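Quick log. Single chain, no ligands specified.
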Amino acid sequence: MESPKGTIDYDLDRKMSRPEIVNEMLKHGKYEAAESIIDAVLSGDDLNEKVLVLERLFEYFIDMEDYLSAYRLRILDFLEMKKEASFVVGKTIIKKKGDFKSAIKYLKKAAEEGHTEAKKFIGMAYYHQENYEDAVKYLYQAVIESDLFECYVLLIQCYLDDQKFEEALKVGAEALARGVEHVKVSMAIAHACLGQLNEALIYFVEYLDENGVNALTRAEYLTMLEVFSVCGDWKGVVRAMQKAGKRIPELNENSGFVYDGEGNLLNSQLKLH
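-> predicted structure:
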């Protein structure tokens, strides 16, 4: 049996499936050579093969920055669920390409069509562009309209990065009333930036007592130690170090807020301005 015309050689002894062959072709940029196999799969009855090929095609179009084709393919995949198609395209552009401007276009379309999580990702994208005004707008809408309370942490960070510390404290108080405990760290930072070290100390102590240090990044942890030491709370310093134990060298050293394509916070380095 010969290899598909115009493509690389394949290990036919391994009896590669059609989705595997399509994957190899696309991996080497042989889209045109793969078209006949793709058409055969999509016109066939094997649902599993269709799903695998559609997913690979979607990734290929994203990699090639052909976002319109990716969107059209997703509409085909999701049939009438256009809001889901727009959302998946926008989210994947963030995850794979970091192209926030293009992602916002599709995420806004999803938001207009009623997708509940889209505004969270729009806010995230604007944050990465340092457009804090629009980031705050969409993150707050995500909180109010969809009860996505996890957005409070990034919402407060927008105010911190924009050096609007009083606004950060107001939103933090609202988040605490809704049970978002991690904002205590952000509120401590805001108080510290305002020179209100005693208030910062209170929030750090509360957070340390309730949560330990496992959810903190290196910068948050070191800022906590700094506030404890400046305030003369050496017992707090010792307690924080004991809770961290051997984990201290492993704490995240990256800067800024970084989210993955699923909207999960990878690190949240807060710093004094």
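The longest strand covers residues 265-269.
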